[in-house]
């Protein structure tokens, strides 16, 4: 997805307040959202609301306050998708007959990207043959129509015409842009967070992993249609994490090890709480098992992704880990990524090809990793 632009057109029906949730959800999926309101839509929900949610200026008229024309051609030329939600019977009629009498209809007609319309209106208006003919005409020209839901309407009646659930609209958007089905039918194991090696019943040996990347990967994989097994390492020691992965590994298509696994464990775990009286305390540590290396030896079809967090010689150390652990892909980043929402990551595959993702939110990095995994497991 990575910043692709979606135009969200909002028309003047009572359901237009629900478009705020749609815009918010698209922003959370890292789309750039440009909202275009009709004059009547702006009477239901102010442009200020949509600007706050989209973090972009909102288009409401063909001419700006100073009299300068708004370039509707430029507005849509880099758009990946144009969706109108909700779309009133009036706007549908205009579009079906090629009218361009406001900024929304003019922009829609100028757009060359895929288009989706989400009708919402009174049942009688929805069932009117003229409305249905207009929708059929738009479909004939490649416009996707999301059927309204049936239920209680703002006018007090019950029937078809209700604005559909935001999740249904999001799914259609993802399918139209080719995101949703990439990992359908694929089982992906994702680990996240930092393991905890016990020292005594109270204290543990752990690390500063926030778990953000693991959760972002889970979200991206689920949006791509995968059957995700997410394992939170923060509740486990290394042995426990190994057992959880092993239970799901045999029929998995990929393992993404975003968890920060402890390198060492206590040789002897105290049965009782260690007293704080001594001025110095020596604890003997032993190396933990290398889980990625272990599962690389077990794999048959599985695509293995590891992470390398380094404070120096980033690329050199990542190449070494990729080779020694027999991984398919490694994501290398420096320690500045700890507990940060953004990171610079180098994706290095076993063929030696490196891809640098420069200062991106972890959600976008996760989406790119999932794209790489999807391409590999489908090959």
Automatic annotation (TrEMBL):
Keywords, ordered alphabetically: Coiled coil, Decarboxylase, Flavoprotein, FMN, Ligase, Lyase, Magnesium, Metal-binding, Multifunctional enzyme
Any Gene Ontology CC annotation: phosphopantothenoylcysteine decarboxylase complex
Domain DNA/pantothenate metabolism flavoprotein C-terminal, residue spans: 183-375
GO biological process, one term: pantothenate catabolic process
Pathway field: Cofactor biosynthesis; coenzyme A biosynthesis; CoA from (R)-pantothenate: step 3/5; Cofactor biosynthesis; coenzyme A biosynthesis; CoA from (R)-pantothenate: step 2/5
UniProt signal peptide: none
Coiled coil: 308-335
GO molecular function term, any single one: phosphopantothenoylcysteine decarboxylase activity
Cofactor binding description: Binds 1 FMN per subunit.
Short name of any one Pfam family annotated for the protein: Flavoprotein
Region (Phosphopantothenoylcysteine decarboxylase): 1-187
Keyword Lyase in record: yes
Domain of life: Bacteria
Region (Phosphopantothenate--cysteine ligase): 188-379
Cofactors demanded by this protein: Mg(2+); FMN
EC code(s) of this entry: 4.1.1.36, 6.3.2.5
Binding-site residues, CTP: 263, 273, 307, 321, 325
Annotated SUPFAM superfamilies: CoaB-like, Homo-oligomeric flavin-containing Cys decarboxylases, HFCD
UniProt xrefs under NCBIfam families: coaBC_dfp
Function: Catalyzes two steps in the biosynthesis of coenzyme A. In the first step cysteine is conjugated to 4'-phosphopantothenate to form 4-phosphopantothenoylcysteine, in the latter compound is decarboxylated to form 4'-phosphopantotheine.
Designated name of the protein: Coenzyme A biosynthesis bifunctional protein CoaBC
Species of origin: Termititenax aidoneus
Name of the gene encoding the protein in the UniProt record: coaBC
């Amino acid at each position: 997805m990575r910043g692709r632009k979606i135009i969200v057109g909002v028309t003047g029906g009572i359901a237009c307040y629900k478009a705020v949730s749609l815009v918010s959800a698209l922003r959370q999926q890292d789309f750039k959202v440009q909202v275009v309101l009709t004059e009547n839509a702006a009477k239901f929900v102010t442009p200020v609301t949509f600007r706050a949610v989209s973090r972009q200026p909102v288009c409401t008229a063909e001419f700006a306050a100073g009299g300068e024309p708004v370039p509707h051609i430029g507005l849509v030329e880099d758009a990946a998708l144009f969706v109108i939600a909700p779309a009133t019977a009036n706007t549908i009629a205009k579009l079906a007959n090629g009218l361009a009498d406001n900024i929304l209809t003019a922009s829609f007609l100028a757009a060359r990207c895929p288009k989706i319309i989400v009708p919402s209106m009174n049942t009688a208006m929805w069932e009117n043959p003229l409305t249905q003919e207009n929708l059929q005409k738009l479909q004939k020209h490649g416009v996707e129509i999301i059927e309204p839901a049936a239920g209680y309407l703002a006018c007090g009646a019950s029937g078809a015409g209700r604005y559909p659930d935001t999740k249904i609209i999001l799914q259609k958007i993802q399918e139209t842009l080719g995101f949703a089905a990439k990992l359908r039918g694929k089982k992906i194991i994702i680990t996240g967070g930092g393991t905890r090696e016990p020292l005594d019943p109270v204290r543990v040996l752990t690390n500063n992993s926030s778990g953000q990347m693991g959760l972002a990967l889970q979200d991206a994989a689920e949006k791509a249609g995968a059957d995700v097994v997410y394992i939170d390492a923060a509740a486990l020691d290394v042995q426990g994490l190994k057992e959880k992965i092993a239970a799901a590994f045999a029929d998995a298509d990929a393992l993404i090890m975003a968890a920060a696994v402890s390198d060492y464990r206590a040789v002897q775990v105290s049965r009782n709480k260690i007293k704080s009286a001594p001025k110095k305390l020596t604890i003997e540590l032993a190396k933990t098992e290398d889980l990625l290396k272990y599962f690389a030896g077990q794999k048959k079809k599985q695509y293995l992704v590891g992470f390398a967090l380094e404070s120096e010689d980033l690329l050199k150390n990542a190449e070494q880990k990729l080779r020694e652990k027999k991984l398919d892909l490694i994501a290398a980043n420096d320690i500045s990524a700890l507990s940060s929402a953004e990171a610079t990551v180098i994706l290095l595959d076993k063929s030696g090809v490196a891809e640098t993702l420069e200062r991106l939110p972890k959600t976008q990095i996760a989406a790119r990793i999932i794209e790489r995994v999807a391409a590999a497991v489908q090959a």
